[in-house]
Amino acid sequence: MATYxxxxxxxxxxxxxxxxxxxxxxxxxxxxxxxxxxxxxxANPSVIEINLDQEKGIxxxxxxxxxxxxxxxxxxxxxxxxxxxxxxxxxxxxxxxxLALNFCSKVVTETCSTLYKGYSEWRLDxxxxxxxxxxxxxxxxxxxxxxxxxxxxNENKTFYTTDLIEKILKEHxxxxxxxxxxxxxxxxxxxxxxxxxxxxAFIYKAVYARGLKFFVNAKQVIQKPLQDILGEQxxxxxxxxxxxxxxxxxxxAAEEIGxxxxxxxxxSFGKVIERTWFKKEPREKQRIVGxxxxxxxxxxxxxxxxxxxxxxxxxxxxxxxxxxxFAKWLEEVGLxxxxxxxxxxxxxxxxxxxxxxKNLPELAVFxxxxxxxxxxxxETGEQRELGEGTQKVKGTKGGETGGEGVSVYPxxxxxxxxxxxxxSGPTATSHQRSIRGSIRLGQEENPDSEKEARFDGExxxxxxxxxxxxxxxxDKLLNYHQIKSIALSLIEFNLDRDPEPSYRKAFELSQKFFxxxxxx
Length: 520
Known about the structure:
Layout: E1 4-6, H1 12-22, H2 28-42, E2 47-53, E3 58-63, H3 70-77, H4 95-100, E4 104-112, E5 117-122, E6 131-135, E7 145-152, H5 162-177, H6 179-185, E8 213-216, E9 219-220, E10 230-240, E11 244-253, E12 263-268, E13 271-276, E14 288-293, H7 313-333, H8 347-358, E15 370-377, E16 391-392, E17 406-407, E18 428-435, E19 440-444, E20 453-455, E21 459-463, H9 467-474, H10 478-496, H11 503-519
Parallel strand pairs: 2-8, 12-14, 19-21
Antiparallel strand pairs: 1-6, 2-3, 3-7, 4-5, 4-7, 5-6, 8-9, 10-11, 11-14, 12-13, 15-18, 16-17, 20-21
Helix pairs in contact: 9-10, 10-11
């Protein structure tokens, strides 16, 4: 007989069928498996097993982790709420099972910890999701850990295949399948840090100290070491909130690689959150691959853990620093986006745009003064190379301005000023300074792009190959076309940062922009 029977007092069916699935951009059947693995990883396992019996329509996900205590099993795992708050791990308690209720006749969960063992049976029934908990016993789990058994309904009985399961694992958890990268998460790679300003990354705290193996129907899933396919690579450190630093690398494969590996994988605890080119358009994108492990970003991920919360300060600070490092590396390997030399003087247009932005609250951030870290030479310091994104400030040896500072963006010729970066000679100390904010304009030929212009966070790059540009040039409407393209690219960028974007916001912002332009 059941020890406890759960009865909800709200429309649980609506939450499970409508609210929770809306938080995911991917198929909820795939999302369920991603979540089940995430929950298993939070329990610090050494083995995660996924077994599929397609004929019976049963999918099992089990781990040999710490299991759940009674309070967590009763209160968190079976708690139905429309949203969860991320903590120190990558999983939401019971989220995989909640999603699975949409396509399963029932979900059985067994758990065993040092102080508790039990199992539950859960199903979706109209407006409710009744469940029964049985204390003191398990059905098949013989040791510490948790096992979730999905009894797929007839409609979804054949959805999962072993190939699909392996593909999902490689897409979302490839660093943990890569034997070389896994050593980082096990804490078996020494931290080799020289110079000041570099602190050990969180990843070296041995996230998965016991090691980790994945099995699908008793076959171990292994990803070919990423570094084996790279012709060259560069290790990078990225600053987060000035005091925290995370590690990764950018690499270039000898030939084109599969789509699932292209781009830089930004990860937290081994989960690939997003693949990105940091709003750059490098040449030979199909050969570029990278990996950055950033545990602090776990607090900035979206519910589906497949992207980051736009507008989140932690994410945006990381993005700016990572973008600068990526742009610098692209220059070094000769794959940077090639902007056309300005055939026209953009100075007047830049002033006009920045003047509008200062009077438009929604976009004023792009033309306002901002606080940024600046490298101030130590008392005994010597002249050192200026790092990307570092500011030249009055009073520093090699500084080139007498004002309060101008920013040096990737692509500019670096001056000679102190830097916090490791290198020869004494270091500099970080201070904050107010710097002038403004967007810049550039041009490129990108006939494959549907966009008339794009904004990378610093520069609006106008696509002179776009048919609309050529038509405007022919009809002598180029100035208006450029204004329109610039405005739309800024609005798009702004909406990407908005936690609740909408077409109405875009429409109203466009109207405000052009009203100011007309009045100006």
